[in-house]
């Protein structure tokens, strides 16, 4: 058996790390909905990742407000762009049930009053059958930062497809989460997903680095 170097695929391809900032990167909040707080798909230790998501959203909103003031409350490029991606299921579905609070975003980060884009997605990838790509291209944004749930489904799918589409993808490691699934505990699952995505499709950052 040959020895493994541990060198990432991104390094071998000389792909530079992305440096996400509110001035040039859109923050995508993936499925931060009440289903993951106390529904059938409740996330392991959701309070911690939920807190981090709120803090990162606050940083992006603060940057947008500051940019607006510096420009006399006018438009300044697209600083502090926040996009709310929410998962949509059919009527009567047992998860994210439409018309119930399980489908609603966490109260502290909702878009109401902030003028932020809300996009409902029918599939794991935020780009599949949605207006997200068009929304970002219209604003000439090619860098995206992901927070939310679940690591092994929607975060993974959005990261991989986003990278294939040419976006610079970053993921906030302490701003995502997962649940125990058959064959894997949540914490180990998140660690593995981050290792996989960091090897190829994304730059992994911590919230304290933003």
Task: Identify the notable features of this structure and list them briefly.
about 210 residues; 6-stranded parallel sheet; alpha/beta
Low-confidence stretches: 72-76
Give the number of DSSP strands. Answer: 6
Major β-sheet profile: 6 strands, parallel
Number of helices: 6
Beta-strand residue fraction? 15-25%
**N-to-C CA distance:** 40 Å
User: Which class of secondary structure composition applies to the elements?
Assistant: alpha/beta
Average pLDDT for all residues: 93
Radius of gyration: 17 Å
Specify the overall morphology. Answer: globular
Strand order of the largest sheet: 3-2-1-4-5-6
List the helices and strands and how they pair.
Elements (H helix, E strand, L loop, with lengths): L8 H4 L13 E5 L4 H4 L7 H25 L11 E6 L29 E5 L10 H7 L4 E6 L2 H14 L3 E9 L9 H15 L2 E3 L5
Parallel strand pairs: 1-2, 1-4, 2-3, 4-5, 5-6
Helix pairs in contact: 5-6
Summarize this, please?
The protein is an alpha/beta fold and about 210 residues long. The chain has helices spanning about 10, 35-40, 45-70, 130-140, 150-165, 185-200; strands at about 25-30, 80-85, 115-120, 145-150, 170-175, 205.
């Amino acid at each position: 058996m040959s020895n493994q170097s541990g060198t990432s695929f991104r390094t071998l391809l000389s792909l530079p790390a992305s440096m996400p900032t509110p001035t040039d990167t859109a923050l995508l909040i993936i499925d931060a909905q009440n289903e993951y707080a106390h529904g059938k798909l409740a996330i392991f230790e959701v309070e911690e990742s939920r807190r981090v998501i709120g803090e990162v959203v606050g940083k992006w909103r603060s940057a947008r407000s500051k940019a607006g003031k510096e420009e006399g409350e006018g438009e300044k490029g697209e600083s502090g762009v926040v996009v709310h991606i929410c998962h949509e299921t059919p009527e009567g579905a047992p998860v994210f049930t439409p018309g119930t609070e399980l489908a609603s975003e966490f109260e502290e980060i909702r878009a109401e009053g902030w003028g932020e884009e809300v996009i409902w997605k029918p599939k794991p990838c935020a780009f599949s059958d949605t207006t997200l790509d068009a929304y970002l291209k219209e604003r000439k944004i090619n860098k995206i930062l992901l927070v939310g749930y679940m690591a092994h489904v929607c975060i993974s799918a959005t990261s991989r497809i986003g990278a294939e589409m040419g976006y610079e993808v970053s993921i906030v490691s302490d701003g995502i989460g997962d649940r125990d699934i058959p064959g894997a505990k949540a914490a180990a699952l998140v660690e593995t997903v981050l290792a996989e995505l960091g090897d190829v499709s994304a730059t992994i950052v911590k919230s304290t680095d933003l």
